[in-house]
Amino acid sequence: MKYGIGLGSNLGNRLQNLHHALQATGKLHQGEIPLLSSPVYLTQAVDCKEGTPPFYNMAIELECDLAAPVLLARLREIELDLGRPTLRQRNASRRIDLDILYAGDLVMDSENLTLPHPRFHRRRFVLQPLADIRPELILPGQKRDVATLLAELGSDEAPLRQISTPLLPAPPEPVC
User: How many CB atoms lie within 10 A of CB 125?
Assistant: First the structure.
């Protein structure tokens, strides 16, 4: 299944945090086509308390056979490994944040996971990186593709500033 993952960081060395998260999530990729990765954008904090540092955000698409709840558990393990505390206030600053944006055509609404992500279509910091890698993608519950959703977005968010070309995971180690 193809999964869209949003990555964000607003504490510490944000670019390095994203790079480490990409290396870890890249190990989950099982597709024959290389993992897709957007550029990294500097974005204002959305729905966070005043004075929250800006984020670096990006999106990737990976392919793997894990069920969505299992992938979510793996992403939470990566967050913990990279220094995100288990107990935190909602929308608090964080070294790393990994969100499943979509899982193919799967629609899911459970206590821990809603797919597609319920607010992806209202957030520039999600739509812009996603439009970079999958502009033609139409997710369940939407009538327009990601590029159109971005073009039509009415948002208070400031324009995003690209700060890095796409980050790529390290190539797999050769098997001898």
Answer: 26
Give residue 42's Cα distance to chain centre: 14
Q: Full-prediction pTM beyond 0.85? A: yes
The residues that are catalytic are 84, 94, 97, 99
Q: Which residues contact 132 (CB under 8 A, 6 or more apart)?
A: 38, 39, 59, 166
Tens-binned pLDDT, residue by residue, of the chain (176 aa): 999 999 999 999 999 999 999 999 999 999 888 899 999 999 887 766 777 889 999 999 999 999 999 999 999 999 999 988 676 666 668 899 999 999 999 999 999 999 999 988 889 999 999 999 999 999 999 999 999 999 999 877 778 999 988 887 766 554 54
- The structural domains of the chain, ordered by start, are 2-164 (3.30.70.560)
